[in-house]
Automatic annotation (TrEMBL):
It comes from Periophthalmus magnuspinnatus. It comes from the Eukaryota. Gene3D superfamilies: Phosphatidylinositol 3-kinase Catalytic Subunit, Chain A, domain 1. It holds the Pfam family Rad60-SLD_2. The keyword NAD does not apply. This is Ubiquitin-like protein. One of its GO terms (cellular component) is plasma membrane. Signal peptide: none annotated. Residues 10-88 form the Ubiquitin-like domain. Keywords: Cell membrane, Lipoprotein, Membrane, Methylation, Palmitate, Prenylation. The lineage of its organism: Eukaryota, Metazoa, Chordata, Craniata, Vertebrata. It is a lipid-anchor. InterPro entries: MUB, Ubiquitin-like_dom, Ubiquitin-like_domsf, UBL3-like, UBL3-like_ubiquitin_dom, UBL3_Ubl_met. SUPFAM superfamilies: Ubiquitin-like. Residues 93-112 are annotated as: Disordered.
Amino acid sequence: MTSQRDLDMVHLRLILVSGKTQDFTFSPNDSATDIAKHVFENWPAGWEEERVSSPSILRLIFQGRFLHGNVTLGALKLPPGRTTVMHLVARETLPEPNSHGQRNREKTTESNCCLLF
């Protein structure tokens, strides 16, 4: 039988670049930093080749975007009681928001506008 507490929890399936996966369960109040710390402290046995030196370089990617440290699972409106897939990567720093798009705009001479008739 599933308890109400289990239904309120967020189930994450984390995928490494190598393709290895592991399931974890977190509170909606847990932040990306909390998750990185928990995973680092409970590093799965099958992930030994990918072990990192510090939880501070673990980054979560959800729907193609890096999650900054203070973002909680609840803020992402993830469905409680269901499994959500995220990627876990080792990266020292995060890109600035919109920096990739800005760089691309600076390199092109094309116009990004359109005309509607």
